[in-house]
Every structure is written in C-alpha cells, then in structure tokens.
Amino acid sequence: MPTLSPTTGIGVLVLTVVSVYSVTSSPLAARYTPLKFTQATRSFQAVPLPLSLPVHSHPIQATAATTNRPVRAAESFFIACRSPSALFNPALPAGCLIMPSCRPRFGNLAHPRRPCKQIFRRHGFCARKRQSAAATAPVRVQDFPARFSPVAPYSFPMRTKGPLDRRAVPLGVIVVFALALWGGEYLRRGLWEPDEARYAYIAREMQAAGRWAIPTRHGELYPDKPPLMFWLIQAGTLLTGGRVNGVSARLPSLLGSVVSLWVLCRLAALWTDRRKAWRALVILPTSLLFWHQGGMGQIDALLCGLQMLGLYALFTFDLAPSRPRLAAAYLCLGLAVLTKGPVGLLVPLGVYLAAHLAAGEARQLARRHWLWGLPLALLLPALWLAMAWRQGAPPEYFRALLGQNVVRATSGTGHNNPWYFFLYHFPLDFMPWTLFLPAAVAAAPLTPVRRRLLGWVAFVLLFFSLLTDKRNLYILLAYPAAALFVADAWDAIAALSAPWRRGVASAAAGWLLLLAAALLGASLYPRLPFARWPLWPPAALALAGAWAVWRSYRRRDVSPHLLYVFAGAMFWVQLAVGALVFPALNPLKTPVELAAAAPRLLPPDREILLYGAKAEIMALYAQRPGRRVDDPRALAKAMRAQGQGIVVFPARDWEALAVPLPGRLTPHPFRMGRKEFFWVEFDTTAAPRPSPPPASQAAPRAAPAPTP
Questions:
Q1: Residue of 129, 250, 110 lying closest to 189 (CA atoms)
Q2: What is residue 476's three-state secondary structure?
Q3: Is residue 163 scored above 50 in pLDDT?
Q4: Of 119, 445, 492, 551, which residue is most buried, by most CB within 10 angstroms?
C-alpha cells in the first residue's frame, strides 16, 4: 500500500497555496478609476463601474477637483457612455466615464490584460479609445473641457489600488493576530471528544495504515467525512515530528481561520474602505462562535476558509473578469467539497447568488462560467473517489458516503432541532457584537453593500434551517458578513442620537462586567472540579476592559476608538480563557488514567479493545490502535486471541455484563466529565479474580498524563 510521505503532505499544502495564489495573482494588480463629468458643476467625480462596488479613492481623487491640480497632456484614454452617439458628441454629455489608457509600470503588468474598452463593454457601456491633444502646458481640472477640443476629451492619470491590493491588511498581521489568540490553546489544551479526538485518531490511523485515500476508524471504513481534513492533519505532523497532537490536529482550523480573516479584510476593502477592513479584522475573531471554532480541531473553520476564498474569487471576478480567477474559485469550492461534502459547493454558490440578488445586481449572474465551473469544482472530489476505488474501497463505502449526506438532510443524525434553531443561535453565537446590531440597523441606510451582506446572512440561515440536522457551527459562514455589517455601520452608529450612543457604550461595558462576574462567581463555587486560579486573570482583564471602554466613551464618545478598545478587551479575555481556563479542564475531558497506563501495559502494535462504544479518544490517548467490539462473546474471543491487554467499558455495560469473561480481570474505574468508564486489565492465561466493585466506588483521579 502507498504511504503518505512528506512529499505527499507537502503536495497537499502546495495545492491549497496554489489555489490561494491563483486568486491573489490576478492580471489586475491595479486599475484606473473612471471619472464622471457633470455639466452642472463642470467637474469630475471618481465613480465605480455600475456594479454597486465602491472604488478605492486615492487622496488625489478626493482633492483634485478643489485644488486645481495640474494634469498632463498627450494621453491616450477611453471614453464610455451608455449611448453610442454620445461617444461623438462634442459637448461631452453628463454621465460619460473617462478612463486613462492602461500601461505597464516597472516592468510588471499593472493593468488588466483585457483592454479597458472590453471592461467597459462588459458592464454595459459603449467605449472608444481616443488620443488627447499634443503636449501643452499643464491644464487644470476646471479648464476641462473649455480649453481643449471636444473631439479630444481629456483625463488626468489616477492610479488607484485595486481590489487585490496586497497592502489592504497585511497577511502577516492576520497570522500574528491568529497565533496570539489561539496559540496558547493549541499548545496547552488537550484534544477533546467527540470531534477533535475522532479526527485526530482517524488521521493517525490513516497514516499508520498508509491508505491515505480511504478514511478508517478502528479498522472500519469511515464514510461520514471526505479526507481533506485528515490529509492536512497528517501534513501538519511535518511540523510536530510526525506526531498527531494538539498542534498538528488544529493546524487546519488555523489555516481556515486565517484565510477567512484575510478574505474578510479584502472584501471589506473592496466594498467599503481600508479602515473598515481593520475593524472587521477585530470583530470577527472576537465573536463567540468564530473564536471557539478557530481554537477547535474541527472541520468547520477549514470549510469556512475555503468557502470564503471561493466567494472572494467570484466577487472580484465581477469587477475584473479573469478566467484564472474563476478557475481558482471553483477549485477552492472543490476543496470545500473534499472537506465536508456537497455543502462546500452549494452554500457559497447560494451566498453568491443571494448577495447579488439582494443588492439588485442580478445582471452580474448571467455568466457562461456556470457551464464549466461546476464540473471543474467536482473534478477534485471525483479524483479522490477514483483514488479510493484504486486503493480497494468496496462499493458499500461509496453507497454509505452518498447515503449519509441524504440522511443528514432528510432524517438527521442525532442533531435534529426545530426550524427556528438558528434564529436564536445566530445572535447568541455572534455575541458580544449582537449587542450593536440594533444600532447598526437603525443608523445605517441599506446601501447595496449592506443589502449584499444581509442577503449573504439570510441565505445561510435559510439553507440550514430547511435541513433536519442542525448544529450551531453549521452557519459559521454567516458570521463574516455580520462582522462586516457592524464594521461598515460603526461610523453611522457614532452619528446617532445621545441615547443611542450611551446605550452602545453601556452594552459594551456591561458585557465585560457580566463576563467578569461570571468568571468570579464560578471561582467561588464550592464544588468546582478544577483549580480556581485560572479564572482570575480573565476576570481581571474583563474588569479592566469595562473600565477602559467607559473611559473611552467619556473622552471620545462612540468613536472607532471605542470599538478597538472593546475588541481589544475581548481579545485578551479570550486569549486568557483559551490558554488558562480550557487547559484546566483537561483532567475532566480526557482519559488521563488510561493514557498513563496503556503505554506501560500494551506493546505498540497491540490493540486496545473498546466494548460498546466508538471511544476514539480512548485509543488516541492510549496511543494504540483501537478495536470496537459490541458482542460479549466476540469480546471473549478477542481477549483469548490477545492473551493480555486492556478493554474499556462504559460503566453501565460493565455492571450489566452477563457473560463471564475469561482470565484474570483487574478493573479500574475512571471518569470523563459526567461519564463513567472502566478500563480493565485482563490476562487470559491466569486464574480469574473476584468480580469488580461497582462504579460508585470509583477511585480518585490520577495525575494528568501528557497531552497527545
């Protein structure tokens, strides 16, 4: 069987990086902003193409019409109008757009490969290239068109940073921000059940078996999830010495979170401005669900990142058509399908459609790329299925893979919730920024950008509300749009009446005071099952943050400064909770007694028997392969075959066991939270011992074992 070599792991990472690079390395590295001539004021105004997508304004653009900035002559330019006859109108009718001719700069393409004329025509304009008059003395903006021949309209060069400008929010800042927020949790918190331990264990088992195309659990096929998450976990072991641990198992979540934040900042800079991109950067990761998922080794953060990357490529394609960018968009959505199945493709495409329809941009949806893009997105999953078939996956694996997606949508898999489940989970999981949504809705008019964001959120909530299976993390893709909505509306919130502004400041300070009270109250609970001191630092930080927020309000009112102070306070509180409070729960959430005993009692290739439970976390912490057994007679047979070993029982199954087991049994009770278990050391070559004591006589917990 082929094994997952370091080269293969690097190849998986390279595929992801190439997809990101394909999106960012568009031919459009910069663009010129068209200028609209108004007859009434005889002046120019920088305007976007008719996409309801605001164009970045260089400081020169904002001041050129009022400072009489000189312009150069002898330029090539394009003029675009709605009517073909207007192209030859000597009076240059109002509403015409003028764009300087695109030119390379510093040896690099600083312009689209498509001529400007094609871009204009793409958006419904009639365009014609013209040449200005011969070089003369500098001409001021107010002189146009009086001093120049109407046959040769004039435009001054205005180079602006395009939607793919790399300096909008530096990627390095985002990476450092994410590492600071989640790094302590990655290093100190163990892998918890169910999902974290399950995915880490499956990745380790695939790595040991060398069947990288077929996920398995306890030697059995695992058709519930596609393999991209497991591949990235295995690739992450290149950074951890080949071990699947808390760092390598969460690197996919870190990758997805960083990509989501990067795309959010790019979209914020594209649709609004750079200031709001920085605000969105601090809002999204300090919302509860996104922060929680960024620190967990689950699939959803990675899925969100790939979906966001695909959406970014689609949205920027509307502004600068480019087939490489479209191909990158659909490849990213194909990777999302490899992460969690069909929702990786259906949800982002639905978001793209709903956002355009809500913003009144249905014209942008009439594209031919739907015909070839969808097959391209499905190409990567098809290649994986072919590889799985080549590696010997049986037909029932493919039937189960398809069937479980249908079951999730129709019957559910144990997470059946009412249709209104997300209507209350969305505001709860977006806290504390939900507190500012009423003010944002009241203050900000429904511009095309805000309608686009509302359509985005509404589709995600509606799509998953129609499914039977519902979990709060399914709607993670809705929170970037909500964060950008708050960031975009903050200036309007600052312009509200005094009662509104005081309410916003009171909500921010009150939330931090509530957090401090909850943490301090928990530390005073007499039966607290872990040490109290980890609760004190985040409580102190929350109190300090409440004071800083109120001080900012008294000095600067509701300004962007207050937003950054509040987000900074949340950042430090969440950092302390992840690095101090969560690790204190490790003895309650992990099988520390079994983890300490299994390496001593079991050879490295000996299986640990798991009776009546999947219990991936037991095999993961025992650092031994697991084998599930559901029948007492099959268990007795497996015990005789091993001779000596360990079997793990849920306490109720151990006490209700009716069939006598062979050999000498030494039971050891332990707990994981509220769950009670027995790990039983057996030796079938020795005489049997008396029956074990009941689970109520559980032994005290042992010292925590090292985190895998």
A1: 250
A2: coil
A3: no
A4: 119
Q: Are 160 and 49 contacting, i.e. CB atoms less than 8 angstroms apart? A: no
CB atoms within 10 A of CB 366: 7
The dihedral built from the CA positions of residue 605, 600, 686 and 614, taken in this order, carries a sign that is: negative
As given in the structure block, the two tokens for residue 105 are 């700069």
**Least confident piece of the model among 115-124, 309-318, 334-343, 675-684:** 115-124
| 615 contacts: CB under 8 Å, gap ≥ 6 | 626, 628, 648
Closest-CA residue to 344 (of 305, 371, 384): 305
Element (H, E) at 163: none
> Residue 429: what residue type?
D
HSE toward the beta carbon, residue 468, CA cutoff 13 A? 12
Tokens of residue 216, six digits: 């398995």
State how far the Cα of 696 lies from the Cα of 673, in Å rounded to an integer.
Answer: 15
Q: pTM value? A: 0.77
Of the candidates 533, 473, 201, the residue with the CA atom closest to the CA atom of residue 340: 473
Residues 6+ apart with CB under 8 A from 325: 22, 23, 26, 313, 316, 317
Q: Rounded CA gap, 284 and 288, in Å? A: 9
Angle between helices 343-358 and 323-340 (to 10 degrees): 130
Q: Could you tell me which residues come within 8 angstroms of residue 112 by beta carbon, excluding any fewer than 6 positions away?
A: 27, 28, 31, 102, 119, 320, 322
Identify the sign of the CA torsion 284, 289, 290, 294: positive
- Closest among 198, 223, 221 to 297, alpha carbons compared: 198
**Are the C-beta atoms of 102 and 112 separated by less than 8 Å?**
yes
Sheet containing strand 126-131, edge to edge, reads: 43-46, 35-38, 97-100, 76-81, 126-131
Give the torsion sign (CA, 468, 474, 479, 481).
negative
Per-position b or e across 221-243, b if 16+ CB within 10 A of its CB: bbbbbbbbbbbbbbbbbeeeeee
In this structure, what token pair is assigned to residue 486?
């708050």
> Cα dist. 393→339, 404, 602 in Å?
19, 17, 30
Residue 365 DSSP code: G
Residue ranges covered by each domain of the chain:
30-161, 171-417, 497-587, 590-697
Query: Is CATH 1.25.40 what the domain over 590-697 is classified as, yes or no?
Result: no
Percent share of the chain, pLDDT over 70:
72
Cα 214 to its chain centre, rounded Å, is: 25
Model confidence pLDDT, tens digit, residues 375-400: 999 999 999 999 999 888 888 888 88
Cα maximum dimension of the chain: 110
